[in-house]
Amino acid sequence: MILSDILKKIDISLNSNLRVSGLNTLLDASENEISFLENKKYIKDLSKTKAGAVLVKKEFEKNVPENTIAIVCEEPYLTLARLSKFFAPKVIETQGNDCIIGENTNIMSNVYLGKDSKIGKNCTIMSGSFIGDNVSIGDNTTIYSNVSVYRDCTIGSDCIIHAGTVIGSDGFGFAHTKTGKYIKIYQNGNVTVGNDVEIGANCSIDRAAFNSTIIGNGVRIDNLVHIAHNCVLKDGCILTGQVGLSGSTTLNEFVIMGGQSATAGHLEIAPFTTIAARGGVTKSITEPKKQWAGFPLFEHRQWLKLQSRIAKLLK
Amino acid sequence: MILSDILKKIDISLNSNLRVSGLNTLLDASENEISFLENKKYIKDLSKTKAGAVLVKKEFEKNVPENTIAIVCEEPYLTLARLSKFFAPKVIETQGNDCIIGENTNIMSNVYLGKDSKIGKNCTIMSGSFIGDNVSIGDNTTIYSNVSVYRDCTIGSDCIIHAGTVIGSDGFGFAHTKTGKYIKIYQNGNVTVGNDVEIGANCSIDRAAFNSTIIGNGVRIDNLVHIAHNCVLKDGCILTGQVGLSGSTTLNEFVIMGGQSATAGHLEIAPFTTIAARGGVTKSITEPKKQWAGFPLFEHRQWLKLQSRIAKLLK
Amino acid sequence: MILSDILKKIDISLNSNLRVSGLNTLLDASENEISFLENKKYIKDLSKTKAGAVLVKKEFEKNVPENTIAIVCEEPYLTLARLSKFFAPKVIETQGNDCIIGENTNIMSNVYLGKDSKIGKNCTIMSGSFIGDNVSIGDNTTIYSNVSVYRDCTIGSDCIIHAGTVIGSDGFGFAHTKTGKYIKIYQNGNVTVGNDVEIGANCSIDRAAFNSTIIGNGVRIDNLVHIAHNCVLKDGCILTGQVGLSGSTTLNEFVIMGGQSATAGHLEIAPFTTIAARGGVTKSITEPKKQWAGFPLFEHRQWLKLQSRIAKLLK
Questions:
Q1: Which family is this protein grouped under (chains A, B, C) (predicted)?
Q2: Hey, is the C-beta of C177 within 8 angstroms of any chain B C-beta?
Q3: Residues B104 and B52 in one domain
C-alpha cells in the first residue's frame, strides 16, 4: 500500500509514495512500516526508530529522525487503531493451496484446515479442531478436540495441545475516542509455539498486535491459563492452573508461576524466578533464582514473615 | 398452562384456572407469572408485585396483594425450583423453521444452526460453532470457531466473539432440600448482547434465571471471563482477563474491571468506576468515577497507603 | 508386559519375568504394578506396599518389602516418568466396537463417538462434542455443544455438562532432568463423574495420573473451574465460578467453595466446610462444618476481625 493512499482513508492528507506493509513499535519497525508515539516516555525510542513513518503529535514532530516521515495528528494511538484495520488480513481465506499434511498424520473428522497451512508428520488433529489459514505445525504434535488455532500461528514439533484451547485469538487492544467509543487495534501479529510444549485445556493465548506472542521450547502450561498479546515465554517456563499474564510481559528461562498467580503488563521476570500461587507481579524482577509470593509481591520468606506479623494483629 | 394443573404436578392442590406462562421475580412478574417470597427482606417487593400468583410461607400469606393468588408452601424457593422445570423450553427443538441467513454471510463447515434462528448480513460463523434455537444475530458479526450460543440468546451487529466462548449456559441456580439434594432452578431466561461488542476466547456468560443477562453496546470483554446469570453490563464496560461476576450484579456505564478482579452478587457499581486487578467488590459502589483496589476493597489511593503501612509490620 | 523387557527400554537391566500392567502409588499398587519412592516422607508407605516392584534409590533398597522387587535407580520419579509412556493407551483407537447408544438418545450432527464407548437412554449429545474411546455415559444425561470427554472416562446418569467443558485432559505431571528437560508422566488414569452432577461451561477436569479423579454424586460445579488430577470430590460438593483445585486434594461431603477460591494439592477438607470467595486453602481442614476465608486462610469470623484490625493501620 502507498502511504498517501492509506492515510487518505482516515482523512489525513500527506504526499508520500512510500510503500508500507504494516504497523509496528518504534524499535521494531522497518523502513516499510508505520509506527507511533503516544506516550512521552518512549521518546528515546523515537530517536532510534527506523520506521518509514511515525504518527506523532505536533510537539514531537521535531524529534522524528531524518529518514522517517512524521505523520502529525492529535491522537496517534487512536490514529494507529484506525489504520490497523487496513493492514488486517482476511478473517478467512477462500483462495490458496490446500493444507499440506505430512506422512502418517491423522486428521480426524470435522477438522477445519485452512488455506496454505502445513502439518508435519505423525501428528494427530482431533475432531472439532480448527486450524486456520497459513498455520504451520511441526512433527509428532497432538492437538486434542475442539482446539482453535487462528490464522498465521505456528506450533512446533513434539507438542501436545489439550482440548478447548485457543491459540491466536485477538489481543485485547483498542483506543478510546473522546466520545467513549472503542476503536479496535487489529491484531495483525501471531503466536509462535516452540518444540516440546504442552498446553492444558481451555487456555487462551492471544496473538500479538505486531510481531509475535512467543511460547518457547519445553514450556509447560496447565489449564485455563490466559496469556495476553505480545508476551514472551522463554524456554522451560512453567505456568500452573489459572495463571494470567498481561500484555507484553516477558518471562525469562525457567520461570515458574504457581496457580492463579498473575502479572501486570510490560514487565520482565528474571530467569529461574518462582512466583508462588496467587502471587501478583507488578514490576520487573531483575535478580534471577528468587522466590516471590503475595500481592503486593514480597520475597517468599518475607511474605511468610509478614503474614505471621499480620496475624498477630488479632491478639 | 393452568395454575391448578401445574401445581398438581408438585402435589399442591389449589383451585384456580389462571393461565400462567412462567416464573419471575416479585417486581418483574406479570399477571400471568408466578413469583415467590423466600427471604423476608424482599417483603416490600411483595406488596408491590403484579404477579398472578406468589409462593409464600403461611406467615406471609396476609401480605400478598389482593389481585395476587397466594400459594402457601413451606419452602417457597424449593417449590419454585420444582416448578421451574415445567416452564423450561426443550433442550433442542426438532421442529420449526430453518435458520434465516442474511446476504453475504459465510456459514463455514460443521456449524450447527438451530430452528427459528436468524443471522444477519455480512456475518462469518466459523467451523465448529453452535447456534442454538431461536437465536438472533445482527449484521457484520464475526463468530470464531467452537463458540456455543445457547437457545433464545440474541447478539447484535458489529460484534466479534472469539473462539471457545459460551453464551447462554445455565446460571448456577438450585434449591437445597432438607436431605441435601439440590433441585435445579431451570434457567428460562436468556442472554442479550448489544452492538459493537467484542468478547474474548473461552469466556462463559450465563443465561438469566428469569428475563435476561444483558451485555450492553460497545462492551469489551477479554479472555476467560465469567459472567453469572442476570448480570447487567451497561454500555462501554471493559472486563479484562479472568474477571468473575457473581449473579445479578449490575455494572453501570463504562465500568472498568482489571484482571482477575471479581464481584459478589446482587450489587451495583456506579458509572465510570475502575476496579484494579484482583479487586474484590462485595458491596454496591454508589459514587461514580472512583478507583478501587484490594480485597477487601479500598479506594485505590487508600489501598496503596494501607499496603505501605502493612509492609512496615516487617520492621 | 514383562518387567525385564520394559526396563530394558530405559536401559535398566534387571532379570525378572514379572508381568506388569501399570504404575501406581505405593499404597494402591497391586502385585502386577510398579510403584516408586522419591520422597523420604512416604517411607512408611513403602513398608506397606503390595507393589510387584518399586523404583527406589540405593539407600532405600533395604526398606523394600520381601515380596516386592526393588528397582534401584538414581532418580525414581524421573524413571517413573520414562516408564509411564509404555503404559499409555493409544491417543485414538482405530479398532474396536462402535459406540452403543441407548433408546431415545439424540446424538446430534458433528459428534465424535469413540470405539467401545457406551451412552445410555434419553441422553442428548450436542453438536461438536467429542466422546473418546471406552467412555461410558449413563441415562438422561445432557452434554451440550463442544464438550470433550477424553478416553476411558465415565459419566453417570442425570448429569448436565455445559458447553466447552473438558473432562479427562492430562494432569499436569512431569519430572525434571538435571539438564532442565521435562519428562511427561503419562496420565494413565481417568475421571469418573457420579450421578446427578451439573458441570458449568468451559471447565477443565483432569484425568488421574494413576486411578481416578472422582466427582461424586450430586456435585454442582460452576463455570471455568479447574480440577487437577487425582482430586476427589465427595457427594454434594459445590464449586462456584473460577475455583481451582490442585492435584490429589480431597473435598469431603458437601464442601462449598466460593468464587475464585482455591486449594493447594495433597490435602483434605472436612465435610460441610465452607470456603469463602478467594479463600486459599494450603493445609488440610479436619474439623467439619466450619467457615473459612482469606489467603492465608482464617476462620471466617476471625478473618473479618483481622480485616478490620488491618484497616485500622490507615489511621
A1: Belongs to the transferase hexapeptide repeat family. LpxD subfamily.
A2: no
A3: no
